[in-house]
Design brief:
Chain lengths: 437, 485
């Protein structure tokens, strides 16, 4: 007879600490473990946080495993058991999952595993600040064998007792542990399961909405935190990786509280979840785009004496042109992220050579500075051929120069042809430009 | 010398790079400077001036003044005279900032008169003379009026009440260079310049309140004729150019020249920024006429600023500007090409003299000098760094070897990027205030880049021009108030 692989289900509301718990498990465990992560949102974040160790990851993104993805979930579990033969499987559900239906699936449809324990992580701080436990949170607590009352570092003893009382009212049989950062001897989590009554789970519709944001650029930290302060209840949970000028971070946000933990990431990947997220989606995305710095240029020291020289880079010719445009802007205004995108202009130019196309395009930026006092913080460029010529179509967005708001630097007089260069090699595109200031 | 350049020492103040140095050189390059000044120049100066020496029609030498530093195409401090019959004209030999120049305005006030009110004066000047990125002037001109400015220069301003009749004779070309043709100007240039009359710009452009101390008068007679006659006399010096208008004219013609230079005229250059066309060609003449519009726009810009300066002093001292003795000394241009007559090997020739970061310094008696300065030689205004000092010089007879050209400033030695790393704008402002120079700026980062230490020693540069026989010292000024764009 084949032994069934034990499966531990980790549930808990948005931002309660599920991924943190899994990181602890991975850190401490000497067993061969497999992890299935279900993400709510199109971009996998938790999976990236957990990867890197000798563990097998299966990520299910773009929906919730308790409803829309149940078929995929079964297939993932089956594959893991057959190919990896782990000692134990951990399943992290989304914060919106109602585990009762999942428990049903595991009990009935998955013959190779047995549900060992349901662990529910409770955010003590959120429970105090938002005492109204929603349906999902209630079901999660109800189904648990083990409950971690997490984030105790954020609450006082009296409130904590209140939380525990409330949890016990919902679920009398579960074992409670107090934790902060989900620090617990992970051995305590397995073998805690009891025979449970399997209810006829009803399919539900989440009232939560989400949106995502990704960029390879760097985000300005002050403006990012300013934005978080302004979520005004529309976003309950946000997480992901964020690249600030000083490094990249793992970002966690739960109802007005957030933290950053240093974390290697090549890019910024964020998901925002809230029951009315759609209401502020456009605003937040535009704010984020606005605060994105694209540091793909550098000013060359000791290359020219009285003028300014920069070198810009891009993976594509379009990126190169955008980097060069931002470098030119950055000579006139320091901290180009302060430029709000209030006005838009379409610029179309042609040139026989690619470097002269760049020369002409940068001239246009200078032209708008003089004629309309317009300075641009964001550019979109399309480059193609038109007959024998190169053609650039640039959409530029920005606003009028305001000495009260913008940090003025140097007035760029002209783009020079002196040592102007646009070249491509294995690492992509590079331009060198000298500007007369 | 550290450079692997085969300098030939002509005198203590002239070093030559022979024609053999580089293929295509049509004349040797000559650098004016002491061994020390030359050793402080970046190697690109020599690369660039020898490129200039390859341009068709160059006469005698490609020259570098003692304040030279590298630029784009031509070095800054470069002088090249081309034979008007067979030579070329090159926008790169003039610079984008056409007729960038200096103007010096007198007062009959002394340092003691202004000392208690220096902040008031500088603050008000800062308000009335717009500077920095994106600044626009108070003059709202329509297109036709702007066209008039391009044709008439400072004369237009005086006609409209922005200046005195006698300002004109105290400006090169009488404030209005002949032959400016607005029909050679692009619409873009008009759009860029139309709102910018009366603005300083940024970078190394500035407006300064300065003092002439008695111990800094080198030639009392000339100083007196130039108007410096009271101990601790207050003067106002400023530096600016033709703003976006001139920048666009140069940009437009650079591209036009690039298209015809090789295909039509068979000229190839070592650096595209040296793009040129024969002076005696449709393109060359068009540019010359357009560039003259830039010259006039710049004269008008400095004229309107002069008017604003007088207004500020009138407001602060509640006295008419004439009673305050606010006569101009002179207005010099240091980014131009002008058609001039010079003797070359005993023969008079028509030359198109490019001066990029170099000042014309006509000797006594020369044609082109106004009556008041016929006997003194041309006043030459040299702007130093904001922390050190500036000079008033005069053209002299021995200037013939440099086509009567001299330095234009102290000349940078340090890149902007480096200066910004080394200096903090706000700290520099405090430090300058402690040493008695009250500074207002549109950009603290810009201010840091202009720190005195980023420049050569002005005294050394000016002494060299005197020792080399390019110009003679008249007065040295020290700054007490400064506005930086």
């Amino acid at each position: 007879m084949i032994t069934k692989t034990p499966l531990i289900l980790i549930t808990g509301y948005l931002g309660s600490g599920k991924t943190t718990l899994l990181r602890n498990i991975i850190r401490d465990s000497r067993k061969k473990i497999a992890i299935v992560v279900n993400e709510f949102g199109e971009i996998p974040i938790d999976g990236k946080v957990l990867e890197g160790k000798n563990i097998r990851m299966a990520e299910l993104a773009g929906g919730c495993v308790c409803c829309s993805l149940s078929g995929e979930f079964e297939a993932a579990i089956e594959e893991i058991v057959n190919e990896i033969r782990p000692d134990i499987i951990f399943v992290e559900t989304t914060g919106l999952a109602e585990p009762d239906s999942l428990i049903e699936i595991i009990g009935e449809a998955l013959t190779m595993v047995k549900l060992d324990t349901v662990v529910t992580v409770v955010d003590a701080d959120a429970m105090i600040r938002f005492p109204e436990t929603g349906y999902t949170g209630r079901i999660q607590i109800e189904s648990a064998d083990v409950i971690l009352i997490n984030k105790i570092d954020l609450v006082d003893e009296e409130d904590l007792l209140g939380v525990e009382e409330k949890v016990k009212e919902i679920n009398k049989r579960a074992t409670l542990f107090r934790t902060s950062f989900c620090n617990i001897d992970t051995e305590l989590l397995s073998g805690m399961g009891v025979e449970r009554y399997l209810s006829n789970a009803v399919h539900h519709s989440h009232s939560m909405d989400y949106f995502t944001f990704c960029t390879k650029g760097t985000i300005q930290r002050e403006r990012f935190e300013e934005m978080l302060n302004d979520f005004s209840g529309k976003i309950y949970r946000a997480k992901g990786f964020v690249k600030f000028p000083d490094g990249s971070y793992l970002f966690n946000y739960v109802s007005d509280r957030w933290d950053f933990e240093e974390f290697e990431s090549e890019e910024t990947r964020l998901v925002f979840i809230g029951d009315r997220a759609y209401e502020i989606k456009d605003r937040v995305i535009s704010q984020l785009e606005n605060m994105t710095l694209r540091f793909k240029y550098r000013f060359l020291e000791d290359f020219v004496t009285a003028d300014v020289a920069f070198e810009a880079k891009g993976d594509t010719i379009e990126e190169l042109f955008i980097s060069s445009a931002l470098a030119t802007t950055n000579i006139m205004i320091l901290e180009t992220g302060t430029i709000d995108l209030k006005e838009r202009r379409l610029i179309e130019i042609e040139a026989e050579e690619l470097d002269l196309l760049l020369f002409n395009l940068l001239q246009e930026i200078i032209f708008f500075k003089d004629t309309e006092k317009l300075i641009f913080g964001e550019f979109n460029v399309k480059i193609g051929r038109k007959g024998d010529n190169w053609l650039a179509r640039m959409k530029a967005a920005g606003e009028r120069i305001d000495p009260e708001k913008h940090i003025l630097h140097l007035d760029v007089k002209a783009v020079t042809l002196h040592m102007l260069e646009v070249r491509k090699d294995n690492n992509g595109w590079t331009a060198r430009v000298i500007l007369d200031v | 010398m550290a450079h692997p350049i085969p300098f030939r020492r002509i005198s203590d103040f002239i070093y030559e790079i022979p024609e053999e140095f580089k293929d295509g050189m049509r004349a040797p390059a000559r650098i004016y400077g002491t061994e020390k000044l030359i050793s402080e120049m970046d190697w690109q100066v020599f690369e660039q001036i020898t490129n200039v020496a390859t341009l068709p029609g160059i006469v005698n030498y490609a020259l570098c003044m003692p304040d030279a530093h590298s630029g784009y195409g031509f070095p800054i401090g470069g002088v090249a005279a081309m034979d008007a019959k067979v030579g070329v004209i090159s926008p790169g030999g003039i610079g984008f900032d056409i007729n960038c120049g200096m103007r010096l305005v007198l007062t009959s006030l002394t340092f003691n008169d202004i000392k208690p009110r220096i902040k008031e004066i500088v603050d008000l000047l800062f308000e009335r003379v717009p500077c920095g990125v994106g600044s626009t002037g108070f003059l709202k001109l329509n297109r036709n009026e702007f066209m008039e400015v391009l044709s008439e220069g400072a004369r237009w301003c005086v006609r409209k009440g922005f200046g005195w009749e006698e300002d004109l004779e105290r400006t090169e070309e009488g404030g209005c260079i002949q032959g400016a043709d607005p029909s050679k100007i692009s619409e873009k240039a008009v759009e860029r310049g139309i709102n910018q009359i009366g603005t300083l710009g940024s970078g190394n452009h500035y407006l300064e309140i300065q003092i002439a101390k008695p111990e800094n008068i080198y030639d009392e007679r000339l100083a007196k004729i130039f108007g410096i006659s009271i101990p601790d006399q207050v003067v106002v010096m400023f530096h600016c150019g033709s703003r976006g208008f001139g920048h666009q004219v140069a940009t437009d013609y650079l591209q036009i020249f690039l298209k015809v230079m090789e295909k039509k005229y068979g000229i190839s250059v070592r650096d595209r920024e040296l793009a040129c066309a024969p002076f005696d060609s449709p393109e060359g003449q068009d540019y010359f006429a357009a560039m003259k519009c830039g010259i006039n726009m710049s004269f008008a810009n400095r004229q309107v600023i002069t008017h604003r300066i007088r207004e500020v002093f009138e407001k602060v001292f509640k006295e008419d500007a004439r009673k305050l003795g606010m006569q101009m000394v002179y207005d010099v241009s240091h980014n131009t090409a002008k058609l001039e007559k010079h003797f070359v090997n005993g023969k008079e020739m028509q030359l198109i003299v490019h001066r990029k970061g170099a000042t014309r310094a006509f000797a006594p008696g020369m044609e082109g000098l106004p009556g008041i300065y016929k006997e003194t030689g041309q006043p030459v205004i040299i702007g130093g760094s904001m922390e050190t000092g500036s000079y008033l010089l005069a053209g002299i007879g021995s200037g013939t070897k440099s086509f009567f050209s001299t330095a234009h400033g102290s000349g940078r030695t340090m890149s902007r990027t480096k200066a910004r790393k080394l200096f903090d704008g706000k700290a520099l402002q405090r430090k300058m205030e402690e040493t008695g120079i009250y500074v207002r700026t549109a950009s603290f980062s810009g201010l840091a880049e202009e720190a005195g230490a980023a420049y050569k020693n002005i005294d050394e540069v000016v002494d060299t021009t005197e020792l080399a026989g390019l110009s003679k010292k008249v007065v040295r000024f020290i700054p007490v108030g400064n506005i930086k764009g």
